[in-house]
Amino acid sequence: MRYDRPAETLADCITGYTVYHADSQDALSDCFLPAPVMLCIFVEAGRVTAKIGNHLFDPLPKIALIGPTTRALHVTTRGGTMVGIGISATGWARMTETPAIRVHNRIVPADTVLNPTAVEALARQIAALPDDRGVKPLLDAQLPTLLRPMPNGAKGGHMPLITRLTALATTDREIDVAQIAREMAVPEAQLRRLSRSYFGMPPKLLLRRARFLRSFVRLFASGDIADSRRLDPSYFDMSHYLRDANAFLGTTPRRFLANASPFLSASIRARMAVLGAATQALHPPGGVRMEETKDIVQPASSSSNDCLDGVLRSIEPEEALG
């Protein structure tokens, strides 16, 4: 497992890079929290299958685009390498004219949505790398080929609104769409269109997902998954939070973590250490500056080499054994 931060010039559009590798061709199942869009490129991999809610995707294309999800993603791999590229709502606006709502809770061939020539060239270059240390430099250099020029006209006017909505969705607040619209100085109908087009869901659902994940991550980090004191202040009580858990995870947080492999725990910790946000859905616009995570990361680094090793070693033995 490896995480890397994108170049500063890409930080508005790309939330991070991930590399997962397994030598064994035995089936290995992992789960992922609901998240924004992810471009996944599989190299020398066996059949990969995935499930979002009750929808099975079998097999996944070798260059797959996972749309914005509001259910947990369960993936089964059979060896090989997966390179993941997190795409923000701003990145989506720069990469495609396809409304993100069309790929909500779906997995599609990336070349049906993104520039097929650029996507296929990127996959070939990744496959030619000798090891994962070359992934970040390659992606930093080549991902601009997926980005179209900053749009003009109406879509150009959407760009600052996308940034503003991203910021509002990643901070503690009441889930009040009317209030969000007032703060953004747009009609509610325009806010709904904006959220569906670039975030892949209505604004209320976007805010609910972020609220749930903020609380889930806090409880996970505290070691007490039932500590109601750490819930987002807009939750009335623990039962309110558990209703959201059932909506987004399909079960309670305790059961979700109990059924997950140690990979999920390591992934949350590693992502926080390297990228500054425990999940992609909580990634603020432009990313997190490394100095803002100095109390989490030591030493500060733009790569995952050293601190990720420390994160993985920090997993308790019984947790590592599942």
From TrEMBL:
Residues 173-259 form the HTH araC/xylS-type domain. GO terms for molecular function: DNA-binding transcription factor activity; sequence-specific DNA binding. Keywords: DNA-binding. Transmembrane segments: none annotated. It comes from Sphingomonas prati. InterPro entries: HTH_AraC. The keyword DNA-binding applies. This is AraC-like DNA-binding protein.
